[in-house]
Amino acid sequence: MGKNRVEQQKALQGSLRAVTRTERRGKPKIGKEEFLSVAQRFGLSKRALSQVSKILDGEDWGAGPFLANYYSNLKETKVQEFERVARTMFQVKYALGLSSGTAALHCAMVGAGVGPGTEVICSAIGFFATAAAVVAAKGIPVFCDVDESLHMDPQKIESLISDRTVAIAPTHVMGGVCDMGPIMSIARKHNLKVIEDCAQSCGATYKGKYVGTIGDVGCFSISAYKIVGGGEGGLLLTNDQRIWERAANTAECGGLWRPDRFAPPRYEDELFCGTNYRMSELEAAVDVPQLRKMPATVNRFRNVRNRILSRLKSYRGVTPQKSNDKQGEIGYLVRFFPESYELGERIVRSLREREIPAGMRGPNAPPDWHIYHWMFPITLQAYAGGANCPFYCPLYKERGGNIKYKKGDCPVADDLFDRVINISLNQWLTASDCREFAKRINDALAEHCPADPTAPSWF
């Protein structure tokens, strides 16, 4: 920590102590009411809240807690602990706790050198945030079609590479994993960065290595909607110091993370204007134990998935989703493709009749920002400034850029996204539950498809 920053911290803590001495009869800024508000949000009963309130009345709050990552008198803040746990768990040099997965993606794009006149190859299937982060960094997303795994098809990447391309951004979809081996080979061949979007697959592995640690930078959504997280948070991982520093600049208003935060640049291009994507202390307090629970959570999902798949028969007319690493997937979904929409609708009805949570979008489904052609802020080439930047940026046009988006650009994604049947799994299913679950799936499929041991296997 730089001298100036130490002095700033001492000054702030000194002012807090001074206020405490001169207003000893006052209440702390943050105290009992705030603690009870958090307890209430956790869903504690009125009886429990009353008991907690009585306990808190006996506490000496002093000046109260200072719930910020900076200028804390704690040896380690919760954000710092979250980052330390992430570095240890994923075995990386740098981890950055952030306000959301989208924030992590934006920071990663800037960190990897995305900017005006550049392009990033994104998956045709995956949440809109990946492509949106490219645009936020003033770059242009170029969509790559998928294969039967619903992940980026490595065989279709090289035809999309131009002298404007600076990165590939594969998305690990719905607990699955991309085929990272060939993706990395292509990236290294063309000197491109790889930005992994791991929002839907935290804890998944590819050939024994955690997703998010294979490319140059990994991005995670640490949220209530995902495997890990309690509210809204994000995580960025990298082993590249310069990528981490540029990402931290983006998240920390252009350089507040530095040892001497207000000092001139230490090297060329170190400083630039950023924003504020800091993870909050309260979010980190929840996410530290959440992250520690992740391996056990993933293991339970895998055990459930494996028990069920091992009991499913092969049927004509349905094709299980291709796997790029069967043992590395998290496995919170069973996904397969019926040969027609009509067959899929009949199968879904039969599954639901047996209380199996299943669904298929079908041919008349409404827009969904998880597939490229419905991502209106991208496909309409809109920008908040009104000048259609970066799509009509002179730097992009001068380099021959002229992107257009339309349905049909990625025909495999167009077909499979609406035709795939999804069955949700519960990590807490017992071995007996899994046997019954598999029996009901088999019964539903057998109603409409003949069993065929030569048909594609679930394992």
Structural account:
With 459 residues, the protein is α/β, with parallel strands linked by helices. Among the domains are: 3-57, no CATH class; 78-289, Type I PLP-dependent aspartate aminotransferase-like (Major domain) (Aspartate Aminotransferase, domain 2). The chain has 14 helices and 13 strands. It has helices at residues 3-22, 32-41, 46-57, 78-90, 101-111, 129-136, 180-189, 241-251, 281-309, 341-353, 376-379, 394-398, 411-419, 431-446; strands at residues 94-98, 119-123, 140-144, 165-169, 193-197, 205-206, 209-210, 217-223, 232-238, 318-320, 333-338, 358-360, 421-424. Helix 5 crosses helix 6 (129-136), helix 5 packs across helix 8 and helix 9 crosses helix 14.
What are the main properties of this structure?
four-stranded antiparallel beta sheet; alpha/beta; seven-stranded mixed beta sheet; 459 residues
